[in-house]
Amino acid sequence: MSPHGKPNAVSRPMPAPPNHQLDPQTTAPQECPPSILWHALRYLFPPACQLCGVALPLYSTKLNLCPTCIAGCTQQPVAACPICAEPYTTSMVVAHSCAQCVHHPPPFKWLKSMGIHAEKLQQAVQQLKYSGRFHLASPLALLLRQCLNSEITDFAPQAIIPVPLHPKRLRERGFNQSQLVAQQLGNALNISVNSRYLVRIRATRSQTDLTRQQRMQNLKEAFALHGTMTPQRILLVDDVVTTTATSRECSRTLTRAGHEVCVVALGRTRLDA
Fold this sequence. Notes:
Elements: H1 36-44, H2 67-73, H3 99-103, E1 111-116, H4 119-130, H5 137-147, H6 149-155, E2 159-162, H7 167-173, H8 177-189, E3 198-200, H9 212-218, E4 223-225, E5 233-241, H10 245-255, E6 260-268
């Protein structure tokens, strides 16, 4: 307190010179040291899991998901088809393709998912899709990349394309959840996302209560290409795959134009038909 009754000014640290080097023992990231304000905000508003809300360590990863939710979202079946990721009901020692891929080979090279569409992952997808929790697109996309990093790297995609919605459905919902995930995945991989090339030209009935064959017929010729693109390796992004009907029809439309397609999805479920 000054003699005039006014509080003394709070001393502030001098800014570091441009060539300032952090102490090797510091716990802050070396490439981008956080500001004092950032540290203060982390203490005042500690990070929480974006899915369940449980408190996270102050210096948590960019995923902002707790270990329990990460484990629940990335649960894989004991055995699955190596081409379409169809979960098998029993454990198989020798990897083999499912009956559908053997008798009706898909137009995509492979399809992989982050996990089984159940419990935690189902909750996350439903919150993103129906509750408007758009912020979940980022941690889910980062987790998808983390789980399938080797497969995506080996394929070396040149472009990312989300499964499109029909304009009528897009107007009703206001957003395309696959596009949100694709955009975040593209940012993480530094790959361009094209959401206008593959379009849905026919409004189809809901797939929910349809059998595998009915879904295939329902989506026949439902997609088209808008404009032209030189043949590329395309990574198709979907939210949930059940029968692969959507993935097959989208991939068929793309491969007809000379593209090579692989598919990634957040969740994979199984439809007994």
